[in-house]
Amino acid sequence: MTKAVETINTIMSQKGFRRKREVAEYFGVSPQALSIWIARDDIPPKHLLKFAKEKAQNETKEAPQSQKETQAVINYLMRENVALKKQMESLSKQKMVDKTQTHKSDLIDKIVSESLLISGRVSDGVITEIEGKWFDLMGYNQDQLLGLRYDREDLIHPEDFEKTKKHQDTIQNSEGIRETKFSTIQRWKHGTTGEYVLLSMVWYVNVEEDRADVVCKPIDTFLGQESLMN
Fold first, then answer.
1. CB 3.0-4.6 Å disulfide test: which of 15, 30, 86, 117 passes with 131?
2. Percentage above 90 pLDDT, the chain
3. Is 167 found in the same domain as 145?
């Protein structure tokens, strides 16, 4: 039995109606309209309100139960409202996270695109491989670097050269160091302008394999932007 039919039967029972036409007159509608309600299983709220008011007046003993049901509905709606607010807050936070991650991703892509790679021998410091935009960022073609030393004096700023040389000598002469990783900051001369460019350099050194891989990044353009990565 549908809800509409159940409600109509209840009205007929309470009012003593024998025909549905009488129910239609009770609601103030045509029998055709009542038939449509039954077919759709949907009695318009304003008509249900009339029946509900009369039912509340006639069934005073059931009022406490009705209040409980009403309160249960209110509590349910409040919980749903709280849940919806939490979902909205979560979506808002996720949107901010996605926006921040996108911004960080763009910056990381920029850093990676402006990173330079040098591979060479530890024993004599000779460059064997280079990768990256060396000409765009530092003004050097491959043939200007390959086969030459990465610790030569005409390339590194005088103040950094002595430190670099001392560091290289320590690695080459140490018997305990087989593999190490460290970072330095050096000023290298630009191949075209002759000006010194500040490079952040991360070294991966394997003494046993006589190999040094160095990831270099011009950091002049990134100074002051480190807070963006936090």
1. 117
2. 12
3. yes
170 and 73 within one domain: no
Q: How many domains are there within the chain?
A: 3
On whether both 54 and 70 belong to a single domain, the answer is no
Model confidence pLDDT, tens digit, residues 64-92:
555 666 666 666 656 665 665 666 567 66
Q: Average pLDDT in the 147-155 region?
A: 87
Pair 16, 78 in one domain: no
- Answer yes or no: is 95 within a domain: no
Question: Cα–Cα distance between 216 and 151 in angstroms, integer?
Answer: 14
3-state percent breakdown (helix, strand, coil) of the chain, nearest 5 = 55, 20, 25
State both tokens at 118.
């040098």
CA distance 170 to 190: 27
Output the six-digit token pair for 143.
């043939």
pTM of the model: 0.47
State the residue range of the domain holding 71: 64-90
Q: What gap in Å lies between CA 175 and CA 207, rounded to an integer?
A: 10
Q: Name 189's bridge partners.
A: 196
DSSP H helices in 28-147: 31-40, 45-58, 63-113, 134-138
